[in-house]
Fold this protein.
Amino acid sequence: MGNVWDRTSEFLSANMRALLPVVLLAILLPSAINVLVGGATGAINQMIVQGYALLCALITMWGQLAVAALALDPDGGRARAMAAATGSFGRAVVAMLIVFIVLAILALPVIGVLAASGVDLLALRNGGMMQANVSRGAATFVWIYALLLGVAILVITTRLALLYPVILAEGGVVAAIRRAWALSRGMVWKMIGVWLLFGIVYLVANAAVTSGIGVVLGLVTDMTSPFSIGRILVAILSGLVTTAFTLIVAAFSAKLYRAAITAREGVPAA
């Protein structure tokens, strides 16, 4: 992992000029606007907010693919990386839908128990409190299953961390899922450690921006209006943190794929 990180750092340093347009337009801009729009739920229809969040996720996915493609083939240049991202975009969307459906199916027992107990799932999804008399047995099942589900999600997402590079380099959808799963075998715990480290750094940095800097800006600027200068600045800063995290993860995944291929030349392409 240390060698992969060194290669990632070298790639980012040597190719930042080529990456900059993709990063600004496909990651930073949609991320910042998504934060701004997401904080204006009282002023904008909720369907519009959710629709834009989905659009931002798709644009960011394309940006991740472009970064990974350039990391896989730096000599090909930005134009070839963007073309590779566009050509692989549909497969990446379908693959992520398959993963999402599998995770949703795994979550069905919890949803079923909560629904049977009279919990308003829509209100719960929107941040409301659980207003229902859930029996002790049902509550115990929900907590234990949710804990196991969290572990399962962590393992599954880690095993599929190489999915985008596999799709870019080898193609396929279901075959790419199987291939990414096979390539991560034997290094799951190391990968979990790396992703947790990335996640903790991201959460701390994002909390510092949204809470710390947001409070300071609230003392000198208007933070009440959904589209005030203060909120725009916080959205941009939060977008910068998300952009740095997304950029590093995409490039690291591509370099980890190359390292896994080198270490596992005997793993057949699915």
User: Anything to note?
Assistant: The chain has nine helices and no strands.
